[in-house]
Amino acid sequence: MAQEDIFKKLVAHCKEYGYVFQSSEIYDGLGAVYDYGQNGVELKNNIKKYWWDSMVLLHENVVGIDSAIFMHPTIWKASGHVDAFNDPLIDNKDSKKRYRADVLIEEQLAKYEEKMDKEVAKAQKRFGDAFDEKQFRETNPRVLANQEKWNALHARFSDALNASDLAELKQIIEDEGIVCPISGSRNWTDVRQFNLMFSTDMGSTADGALKIYLRPETAQGIFVNYLNVQKTGRMKLPFGIAQIGKAFRNEIVARQFIFRMREFEQMEMQFFVKPGTELDWFDKWKETRINWHRALGFGDENYRFHVHEKLAHYANAAVDVEYKFPFGFKEVEGIHSRTDFDLSQHQKYSGKKIQYFDPELGESYVPYVVETSIGVDRMFLQVVAASYCEEEVESNGKKDTRVVMKLPPVLAPVKLAVMPLVKKDGLPEKAREIIDDLKFDFNCQYDEKDSIGKRYRRQDAIGTPFCVTVDHQTLEDQTVTIRFRDTMEQERVAIAELKNMIADQVSFKKLFAKLK
């Protein structure tokens, strides 16, 4: 199945099973804004808990805050967002659609990669176990030709980005023959910069209103609270401040479902260190964060690091953690060494001394910062994409297709579905009794509609790891049948054993043990 078709199925599945809805759908929706449904919000909260606890509980020197969305407008002047928070945009004159020029070129690079991967896949199928991928990539003429095109485009693109050469970006688009996805034409405007911040007015009268911005990132809320946290928490370097919160960007190219949205949520941690040690800490957090992703069990080969071609004005090192989505490798998290730029700027613009007194050196200085920043929504999409599975199974002697979300049990929205075999003979009451006992420990769901087979399929599609069936034997010996989602195997167990059995599989403690 084509990757594009898989992604369309994923989007449809998210709506059908209560994960993600188009915002304001009854009014024809709002572009690039989405709502999380009853299962989506549970998965999202579990992802946030995994991140928050791994940061704050597992690190003695990391604490959390929750800063306001509205902030003094001078903050965004100091951070550089007012003057430099721009995207290079280009319009197609025929479709009247606007695109990010850098994204169009990145997609062209991905096409060359896809061509090379297809050649490798065909050869692998032809030669089987004897296939040597490294040798094939180094010798096959078609792979080498596409690699040469990729290298040339990559070098040219990198130079243009680093030089902020908008004319060169347009020339690359024209030279590569990149067409508008809507009109199919190459009738492009010039590339120009566009500021991504949303602005609004704060005040009781129009004349006295203060122009403020919806924050485009959560990091600045951490930086302006550095002194408050450091002093009240008596924090010593190195230490970190973590935060989860909403951010807003007026994205023009907002597509690929929830991958790029105008209203989104970030999980960020700013780690304050002694100047000169920042690159060592950058390497440590880089390793810590990739391990956090890999612990979920989606395959180490589906993650890679992407070193930034162009560093932000405040950074001296930057790398992305990329995951292989159905539409290719894309960023899910960034790790950046931000130097002392942010604190120094806020010290300059506020007129307040923002420094750390080092008792060992007997002197004060502005700390350097290493940032880890991950999008909750992208992480959500990564988990859903990695978990969605269609597999052929036997059902009553016939082959059937089972759609299942193989979510890590710890992240699954519903941990346990309890089902009476029939809606009589006291079985529903017994099922309710089991739920009443377990609902304080797990998110449980009662399901009595349709045949037991259809109920299993429904819970598979939601991603529920355990289904418990209450039958007539239950009333006799206090045992139930527990079914395991991934294997579809069933086991007879005592009701009294359910709590410990499920708790062992859905415990964050078990997941955190992999991070050591």
Please, could you describe this protein's structure?
- By secondary structure, this protein is α+β, with helices and mostly antiparallel strands.
- It has three domains: 3-85 and 196-384, Bira Bifunctional Protein, Domain 2 (BirA Bifunctional Protein, domain 2), CATH 3.30.930.10; 90-181, no CATH class; 414-515, Anticodon-binding domain (Rossmann fold, 3-Layer(aba) Sandwich).
- Helices cover 40% and strands 25% of the residues.
- The chain has 18 helices and 23 strands.
- A seven-stranded mixed sheet has the order 3-9-10-16-13-12-11. Strands 20-19-21-22-23 form a five-stranded mixed sheet, with helices on both faces. A three-stranded antiparallel sheet has the order 5-4-6.
- The chain is globular, with a radius of gyration of 26 Å.
- The mean pLDDT is 90.
Give the secondary structure arrangement, pairings included.
Layout: H1 3-16, E1 20-22, E2 34-36, H2 38-56, E3 62-64, H3 73-79, H4 81-84, E4 86-91, E5 98-100, H5 101-127, H6 133-139, H7 141-162, H8 166-175, E6 192-195, E7 199-202, E8 210-213, H9 219-223, H10 226-232, E9 239-248, E10 263-273, H11 278-294, E11 303-307, E12 317-325, E13 328-339, H12 341-350, E14 356-358, E15 363-365, E16 368-375, H13 376-387, E17 388-395, E18 398-405, E19 416-420, H14 427-438, E20 444-446, H15 452-462, E21 466-470, H16 472-477, E22 479-484, E23 490-494, H17 498-506, H18 508-512
Parallel strand pairs: 3-9, 19-20, 19-21
Antiparallel strand pairs: 1-2, 4-5, 4-6, 7-8, 9-10, 10-16, 11-12, 12-13, 13-16, 14-15, 17-18, 21-22, 22-23
Helix pairs in contact: 2-13, 3-12, 5-7, 5-8, 7-8
